[in-house]
Amino acid sequence: MKRILIACGNGIATSTVVASKVKDYLNENGIEVSTTQTKLMEVPSKVHDYDLLVTTGQFEGQTGEVPVVKGMPILTGIGSEQTMEEILNYLK
Questions:
Q1: What pLDDT sits at residue 23?
Q2: Which of 6, 8, 72, 74 is catalytic?
Q3: Cβ neighbours, 10 Å, residue 7
């Protein structure tokens, strides 16, 4: 099972929406995932335990080897399909 850390400003609102959409998309494509929501400021201390980081805000911190995907298109719908494909490709 792949693990995705999803971060937004407060770790509640937008990350919950993104987590739900990402999980549904990946399940439809045969990838089982678990998602965890967090605050952007908590990312550096948590990210090392995950396969992917998806952010809905500005993040300039270090993630080591963990790839980062900007998740705002999932909220706006503009470029959402490309963002979902990017996430899928990282987890294959």
A1: 97
A2: 8
A3: 28
DSSP 42: G
Helix or strand (DSSP H, E) at 44: helix 43-46
CATH of the domain at 73: 3.40.50.2300
Q: What range does the domain containing 69 cover?
A: 2-91
Residue 6 parent element (H or E): strand 2-8
Tell me how far apart the alpha carbons of residues 86 and 32 are, in angstroms, rounded to a whole number. 16
State the total domains in the chain: 1
Count, residues in the chain: 92
Is residue 60 annotated as a catalytic residue, yes or no?
no
Q: Residue 60: is its pLDDT beyond 90?
A: no
27-53 confidence digits (pLDDT tens): 999 999 999 999 999 999 999 999 999
